[in-house]
Amino acid sequence: MISANDLSPAELAALLHFHADAGVEWLLEEEAIDRFAEFEAMKAARRPATAAQQESPVAGERQISPRPNAAARPAPAERATSGPQPAIPDGEAVQQARFVAESARSLGELKTAIEAFNGCNLKHSARSTIFADGDAESGIMVIGSAPSAEDDREGTPFSGKSGQLFDKMLASIGLTRSSVLLTQVIPWRPPGNRAPSAAEMDICRPFIERQIALAEPRVILLLGNFSARFFFGENDTIHGLRGRWREIAVAEHVIPAIASLHPQDLLTAPVNKRLAWNDLLAFQARLKSLSLLRN
Predict the structure, then answer these.
(1) Among the listed ranges 26-35, 196-205, 206-215, 254-263, which one has the minimum average pLDDT value?
(2) Quick one: DSSP state of residue 163?
(3) Cα–Cα distance measured from residue 142 to residue 257, given in angstroms and rounded to the nearest whole number
(4) How many Cβ atoms sit within 10 Å of the Cβ of residue 13?
(5) DSSP H helical segments within the chain, as ranges?
(6) Rounded to an integer, what distance in angstroms lies between the CA atom of residue 226 and that of residue 198?
(7) At 226, is the secondary structure helix, strand, or coil?
(8) What is the CATH number of the domain that holds 232?
(9) Over the stretch 149-164, which tens digit does the pLDDT of each residue have?
């Protein structure tokens, strides 16, 4: 087996890119880490101290013995904490996220604050923090769902093949990604592209709402099922939510918004491109009526 010490920097970089493209998200450490035991220990630490002072089981009551190999597992507290430990989503993390978001007075300050925020589990498994990109003065905001693997790897929203299709969608109505403000509902990619949990959504909500409040867009395009459900508060599919203008209320702002299919949806089912085209035409018409479409 070839050792990493025998590879050049260029060869190491190529190897890492190969693993990333193959879907590898975690690297093995020198010693095995029991994440389940670590999670249970963290939950136990949050319980009230009185829980440890409960009375012993009554005589004759059967007690559950620990697993035979439990003693061989290293206790989480005995390991060195070389990096940030995963945070458990709770009300305190939501309050912290709200405080951090409301304290930001510009998009630049908000970006710095989100990158320093450690109260969401998603950040500890993501490679990049995805933040708004493009023209914040355009009055046009496009919001996708959660970052994809390509977004996480590149550090920008709408990357990879779906990003290439997204660029074509914008070009079809006279826009470019540099002429609008692009962002995602969730700033960190969920592991394996799973759907964010309710607790993770609650923690991330102040960040996307603050981005909208600071950018003050005059119109919003939502792409994808998750994004539409997040803002419209409904559980219908994107086919039931798309194509109709609604209003999003954020802070003191009420912004007209329309939902459409995400570019990834169109790559998976190209037959739906005609539906997306109709939505884009409706979006283009609204831009023209607001004098936001630059020739």
Answers:
(1) 26-35
(2) H
(3) 10
(4) 11
(5) 9-21, 35-46, 91-103, 107-116, 121-125, 149-154, 160-172, 198-215, 225-232, 238-241, 263-268, 273-289
(6) 12
(7) helix
(8) 3.40.470.10
(9) 999 999 999 999 999 9
| Amino acid found at 201 | M
Give, in degrees to the nearest 5, the angle at Cα 34 between 120 and 196: 30
**Domain presence at residue 253:** yes
> What is the Rg, in whole angstroms, of the alpha carbon atoms belonging to the chain?
23
Does the structure show a pLDDT above 80 at 263?
Answer: yes
At position 98, the amino acid (one-letter code) is R
Is residue 86 situated within a structural domain? Answer: no
Report the residue count for the chain. Answer: 295
Residue 258's SS3 state is strand
CA atoms within 13 A of residue 86's CA, in its CB half-sphere: 18
Per the structure, the count of domains in the chain is: 1
> H helices then E strands: how many in the chain?
12, 6
Could you give the 3-state DSSP secondary structure of residue 219? strand
- The Cα–Cα gap between 57 and 90 comes to 31
- 100 three-state secondary structure: helix
